[in-house]
Amino acid sequence: MDAVTPHRVDARGLLCPLPVIRLQDAAKTLPPNSLVELIGTDPGILNDVPAWCRINGHQILESREENGEFHVLLKLGE
Amino acid sequence: MVLQKHIRPFSDIISIIFPAVIDPMTQFQPKAVALISGGLDSMLAAKVVMEQGVHVEGINFYTGFCVEGHTHAIRKKDRNKPKRNNALWVAEQLGIKLHIVDVIEEYKDVLTNPRHGYGANLNPCLDCKIFMVGKAKQWIQDNGFDFIITGEVIGQRPKSQRKETMPIVARESGADDRLLRPLCAKNLPPTLPEREGWVDREKLYDFSGRTRKPQMALAKQFGLVDYAQPAGGCCFLTDENYSRKLSDLWQARGEKQYELDDIMLLKVGRHIRPAPHFKLIVAREEGEGRFLQGYKNRFTHLQPVSHGGPLTLIDGKPSEQDLELAARILARYSQGRDAEMVEVEATQAGQSRFFKVPPMKPHEIPAEWML
Ligand code: SF4
Questions:
Q1: For chain B, N or C: smaller number of CB within 10 Å?
Q2: How many structural domains are present in chain B?
Q3: CA-to-CA distance for B329 and B332, rounded, in angstroms?
Q4: pLDDT in tens, A3-29
Q5: B238 pocket-lining for ligand 1 (C-beta < 6 Å)
Q6: B100 and A20: CB-CB below 8 Å?
Q7: Taking the model in full, what pTM does it have?
Q8: Which residue has the least CA distance to atom 5 on ligand 1?
């Protein structure tokens, strides 16, 4: 994986808090400053992922909705 | 005496300089993990210990039954309500890390074989507490933490939080005296964190009984507002309707087992069981319909075609006759409910067929079919 290709976490079809759990578990295996893209269908992601990022010092770079799917791009903290 | 009053012991001076209980010689700062449900009690318990300078992180267990969010995400009418995960919110308010742990698989055994039985509904609260504290015990061992905090209060819940259950949870979880309940610690024997001086027992509390007033007063003292106050408990298993649907599922299958999809579907739609070997799950509104769409490839499903109407999944093994009956029931919930005939498409293993049926009248659907 090159530096700019985000690690993808596919949480489509999962209801909160499972997307956050999948994200958290992926983050544990990745080095600091990694880019991660979470894709999900539960709109709760738009609240829970930012809250999780604030708690853990990660940064949301972009979040958008596309064809009923939510994409959140974030950068893991140090 | 007067002199003694003015000469403070070294440790006292240190604790003024360092409000945290960091041992100046060893630089040891005790670390605790707090079980965070998202409700007020666990929030207060964590806060009380943090105030004493202990490093606290939160842990939250996801069993699949947690009230957090699901139906908000599904039902359209709830979509615009501000929705938050209360455990994350609590962690953010406290400024602590939160570890959310997926225990869906392991929890199945807790729920289907509770050694201490169920509460008023299918809530195995005592076994659940033992299980969660046990998992937290494992977590502190793996992560080099010293003790566990819960928000339990003696007498707060008639079955699971009693004076007699407190030592059971400590013992059967294996946490023993590394389990601290800051809100009622003064009513219990001193635990390791108290004996070691990691926390000052005098600054812990002696709450007991069902009243919520002391918790609310403490919340006010800490300046905590807008906290969640779930009525029944932290999960769907305390809900009578939900428990009824779950026991129906077990009865229909002839065994106490479930998958995550089963327990998600119990939260959605109208469940109607005309016979032991099949039931209908009828979407009640657009949001539920969208949610059920995600399952339709795995289920026999029905949809009215001559009129607007809800997507309906069939759980079980319906015969041709059963499908016709299901089509009549579904027609009753379609826009053709007053029409003479409604055409319904039934899809089973990718094969479609069509039924033209008279909608059932509401009084023709026996009350006992409605779960
Ligand atoms: S209410 Fe549910 S989550 Fe809470 S202790 Fe009881 S069974 Fe466990």
A1: N
A2: 2
A3: 5
A4: 579 999 999 988 889 999 999 999 999
A5: yes
A6: yes
A7: 0.89
A8: B125
